[in-house]
Amino acid sequence: MPVPVPQLGSYSYVPETKEDLPWADLVTLDLSKYGTPEGKKELAAFLLKALREKGFFYVKNFNISQEDVNHQFAIGREFYELPLEEKLKYVPDGLDNGQFNGYVPAGRRILDKDSGLRDRVEIYNIPKFNGDFKHEHPEVVTRHLPEIEKFARALHSEVLDPLHVLLAIALGLPEDHFLKIHKYEVKSEDHLRYMKYSKYTPEENLKIGNTWVQGHTDLGSWTLLFRQPVAALQIRDPVSDEWHWVKPQDATLTVNASDAISFLTGGYVRSTIHRVVSPPKDQQHVDRLGLLYFSRPHNDVVLSTVQGSPVLQREGFTQNDFEKSDNPTPTMEKWTFAKQKWQRTKNVARDDPTYQTATILPGFREQVYA
Fold it and tell me: Which top-level group of life is the source organism from (predicted)?
């Protein structure tokens, strides 16, 4: 008799916090308006204002059902219920040199030197399904690859493509300017991520200053974060420099601009600083499961400031950090693996100044934010 295939079952979200936190005042981009020239123009102006004033924003009406989102969370839950020895089979070769597709175990970073307390962040990255990458996964993931591929491709067509068109319009560029360097069929280091933050005790949270992941920027174009109700994400307001919590919003994606978009716009669109902190007291007893997608330009794209934008010319954003330093401007591939190598540095204490301000490529010094 055939062996029955295990079913995922439904995914249940924990209750939202009841604490009154200083929430970030973020705007919501409604993609239902995207279908007309007038709607695109309105959304483009809306997007640019959101990027310049906050860096993070919500997106709604992106044509992906909540059922499909719940299904992805359920896959992530099942993956993290595997024994550690099974997950460790999928650690990428070259993890210490910046490779990242597959399983990245917790504990690579020392959070408290006195006690030896380490991070409890686990990552599972799934690359593009365009033929450029191997797909070797545990059975719980393999049997759902068709749904995962459909989901990842939908994020490109329904969310990322519109964002790239809107950004081009906002900068006075041809609509396809950013589309041409973010095609799904072309090799890039995009990936879908299931991410688990395992809880700490209240005493452990005090030892690490209630900060799980220090302030940082992401390395690609956009980061898409699906709603999950354990409050822990904070963003640093680019205008006031104050930290605010990001509130979970029903049926939305939380989106932030990242390093590549900043380089391509000469710093006009800033890469958004964010961190992960200890959840409020009424949620500290649960682990936090995240579902994310990271978008990146094609590997061979040189990260030079775009030419021909009247907005960037008018505002004086015509050179990025590499161009100002007279050092070679890297390709996206070179930038990706240089920053990933820095991010995955093993056994480093997070307050190590040589790590926090490392020059990861000539002309660019990284920074960790408190």
Answer: Eukaryota
